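User: Can you model how magnesium ion sits in this protein?
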Amino acid sequence: MLDTEFERVSLPISDAFTISRGTQETAENLVVRISDGSGATGVGAAAPSPHYGESAATVEAVLPALLSVVESVGDPHARQRIERDRKDVIADNPAAHAAVDIALSDLAAKRLGVPLYRKWGLDPDATPMTSFTIGLDSTDRMREKAAAAADAGHEVLKVKLGTDRDSEIIAAVRDAAPDARLRVDANGAWTPNEAIRQIDALADHDVAFVEQPVPAADPDGLRYVYERSPLPVAADESCVTLPDVPAVADRADIANIKLMKCGGLGPARRMIHAARAHGLEVMLGCMIETNAAIAAACHLAPLLDYADLDGSLLLESDPYAGVPVDGDGIHLSALDDRGLAGTGARRDE
Ligand SMILES: [Mg+2]
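Assistant: Here's the modeled complex, given as structure tokens:
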């Protein structure tokens, strides 16, 4: 017997977050709880992205149908059957599916009395550091934000680009954080030829890689950039679900996988292994999301080359505790000490 419920939570972002497509001041997440009637509750959350056709309203509209599948199967360990039945009822809406999958995974791990990463046998010492994202702003503000992030101990910064002053921004950020490992994300803002010019200039500032230089709608452009770029190329908007992995294997060096794009931990794990099989490096990213969602991604961190799991760090405050994340890394082994299995618990509970 499983009981389910969900609620919408409005999470103010500490500093309005801007990328080449627009600005966001609040993150609307949907938190799902699944209880087994004997005191264990699994928690998960959806962070819907309008870019992938979802909103808080679309998640709210489909969650009752997805959760009725969970209740009718009634077993948190029957994730394969529940996933198949969920997809039969609602084919798309990946963030809504992810929230349910995370909450079920959390409940299954809690019933077994281990954190998720230990259920999978993963090595907590193999987690890469997460990057901290510097959103678009005036060049001076981006310089200040980069200096503040470096002061706070973040050694890896991901800089949003896609403006008419990209080279000025990267010079200012490099100046403010001379020792940081820099990555950049254009969110598809460049044309292929512009991307080559930009990436040539970025290479002079010791940038590690470039994410989504051209729009996902231009796969030939992505290959054109990949074949000419002096820096590795990561595919994010071009790499959404499992079939995209082989499709980007000759167009990118790195697959950026997100639970909210692919529909949860099960699909994300399949994408990670598919990416490895196609010779891609693996990055796990996030939306702006509460720990009730992002903690799940953190449990996969030992499988990654690159982590971009700073969504909760960008919030003014997060009502959910999760995996401790800071400039030193993603601290999975801290969960054993706290006895916190699975994903987030409310801080005030
Ligand atoms: Mg991206």
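A couple of observations from the model: Residues 118-347 form a domain with the TIM Barrel fold (CATH 3.20.20.120). The longest strand covers residues 3-19.
User: Helpful, thanks.
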